[in-house]
Every structure is written in C-alpha cells, then in structure tokens.
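Milestone M4 deliverable, item 7.
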Amino acid sequence: MDYSNLYPHQLQMITDTRNAVRSITSGPRTVIMQGPTGVGKTVTMAAMAKTSMGMGNRVIFTVHRRELLHQSCRALDSWNIRHGIIASGYPMDDAMMHVASINTLVRRMQKIQPPDLIIVDEAHHAMAGQWAQVIRHWPGATVVGLTATPQRLDGKGLGELFQRLVIGPTTSWLIENKYLSPFRLFAPPNGIDTSSVKSAMGDFKKDQLAVVCDKNSITGNAVEHYVRHASGKRAIVFCVSIKHAEHVAEEFQKNGIEAIHITGMDDRDHRDDVMRKFAAGEIKVLCSVDLISEGFDVPAVEAIIMLRPTQSLTLYLQQIGRALRYIPGKTAIILDHAGNCNRHGMPDAARTWSLAGKQKKSTKDADDISIVTCSQCYAVFRPAPECPVCGFEQAVNPRKIQEVDGDLVEIDPKELARIRARQISGAHTFDELEVIRKARGYKPGWTEHIMKSRRQRYAERA
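Output delivered:
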C-alpha cells in the first residue's frame, strides 16, 4: 500500500502503534489502537498488514460477524492485498494474510501456521473467551486491537490482555477537520423512565427494557420526528428487541416510508440483500437491535433514531458513529428518543480512555456529561442560569416528568460539556436526589453516596 494514500492522522496512529509495540520489553506484545468510528481503522489495518507481509510475516485479521468479514475482504481487494478467508465454507489456503471469523479461527488454530501479527477488529470484545483463547494460543505474535471504545460493553478495561493503549484523534477534531460529519442532536426533556428496569452485565435487562420502550407514550412518535427532522434520509433505528423492531418498521410502512427490520437470525442472503437495498437508497429506514451497531459502513446514512436506552458508553458511541461518516455538505441527524445523551453526553465530548476501563467518579465530577433542558422552550444545553436560546431563567430544583411523550428538542453541542452540579446542589432532600438518579439511570446507592458526602462535608466544617 502506498502510504501517501493515508491521512496524516492515520499515519500518526500507525507510527504511535509501532512505537508502543517496540516499547514492550517483556511479556506479550499487545497494543490497542483507539480511534473514533470513521477515523479509518480499516485502512490503517490494511497498511499495517501490507507492511508486515512485505517483511515476510504472516497476518491474521479477526472479525466477529459475517458482514464485517465480507466488508474487510472488499476493502483489501480494493487495495490489491492478496488474502485468504478463514470461515465456514471456505477451504484452507497458504495465503500470507487471512481475514478470519473468530468462531472458525478458534476451531482451526491447530491447523494454521502461527501468525506474526494478529489484528483484532472491534477489540472491545477481546476479553470474551474466543479472542482471549486466540491471543494466548500464539504468545509470540504481535497483537494490535482496533476499537473506537477501548473498554468492554460493561465499562471494564482491557488491561488483562493488552499492555499498551494508543489514543487517536478525537471526534471533535475529526469533525472540525472534515473527516467526520457535523451533527444535530435532538432529545426529549427527559429520557425514558428506566427506574423499574434492572441491570445485568453493565446494561439494562433487555426483556424488562422492551416492556417500557415498546410504547408510543414513552418513546415518542419516531415516525413523526423522522418526517419532521430527517424526511427522505436513510436512517437506522436502534430498538430493544426483535418485536420492537418489527413494530417500529410497521409504523414507518403505514406512513408510506420504505422501512424494514433486520436481525442476526435472518437468512444471510436476505440480510445481504437488505443491506444492498439500504445502501442504494431503496430502503429508507432500517430497524435493528444490535446487528448494525458495529462495522456497518454506509457513509450515506444521515440519521440515527435511538429507541433503546443503554448504560453502555461503548454501545452509545458505536450506534451514533453509524451516521457520522463524512460526505461533503452532510449534517447527521440524531433523534435520541431514549435520552442516552443524558447518560453519556455529546458524541463529540472529550473522553479519557484507559486500559483500566471506566473509572469510578468522585461526587464532584460525577455529572460532567449531563445536560439541562429549558423548562420554557425545551432547548437543551450545558447547565447555566439562563437558557441560551430563549433567555428564560432556569429553576434550580429539577421537576419530575411522568411521561416523555412529545416533541424532541435540539441539543446545542456548544452548550453541553460542563457538569449539572447545579441541579444536584439544588436538590436538598433524599427524594429530590432520587428523582435525578432515576432520570439519569444511575445505580441504586448513588443518592445515599451523595447524602453521605454532604454529611461528611458538614461535619468537617462544624
């Protein structure tokens, strides 16, 4: 590959990764390369693979879905990089590079010549048994993991398998320099009430979540807001369950909008056909659960409709990233009916990544990603005494909203990085803090933690 085809930030990521590998003097040479969705991790993978192959090394690029397998192969073909495929239905060959389905790779490890370089796509999955098994099976190989979010879906770190973390450019920098598209984000005054939904493995339980989400009175009218803000645009709707996706697709169809739902259980040929029609614009709205949260590369996607609340920052950013692929003149539309931005902040917010994973925040900075909704005009912004849109003076105490049915309001990206500590400081009782906890999806115990911290401060002052 001609490195002149790479952008400067991609070259820098490769250089930083190479230096990180060289800095490891003992133990496995395992490095994570982090870069936001759309930064060009696939092209950097191809560049690293071709360079390594030119030195006589064997390379394996691992993926975890059929769509990602074929997408990676098409990309390598376009760059004239010869490669084989390790997947069900494909024979073994002696190619210097293989794109491998993780499921098949695990079964064939004993028959494959040891690789010198293993590149792991969507490496936040690497702590799962199969990836760990592959990495540990070839301890002499250099391992480079690629991911936009270097932590597991439950927020835990990847430090057990990876020794170094290379940080790529930020989303805000990529937008400012026209490598990603700008966006407009709309959300309800409050998110879906998930206080009755329990958590497991770092996210809401899907069966319980489906009960509270598959209702127009809770999620808002997705069709109406699509027509209002994104009419005619190719949109992806993220749902909670297959039935939920079916119901949403039916609502779009009833309103004359080409829509279809797709799941991982669909026939492969059917899924491929749906993806082709969506890419061609024959289907306008694609409703799914988790199938297209990762690796789905259709730059023309201009809208995301979020109908699934999630506690996972990784899932939130993966889903929003589907709409940020750059096209000149494009502004992505994000319709966050689920209110996930209240939990995780803006897509381009500054974030600190670590191999240790999501760090427990102190009371002081626990709210650094929160937002405020104007009680007068419903604009959304960073905490401030007055609304930057209508100038209405904001009440300190939060008000409890029973339902979130109704209009979505636009969130101003420039007004959403500071903390909502003002709301917390204005909540003087346990019950008032509980309202905030439930609205933002905090875990049980958060309120008592805040009250305990206050009691300690009062005691110190006394």
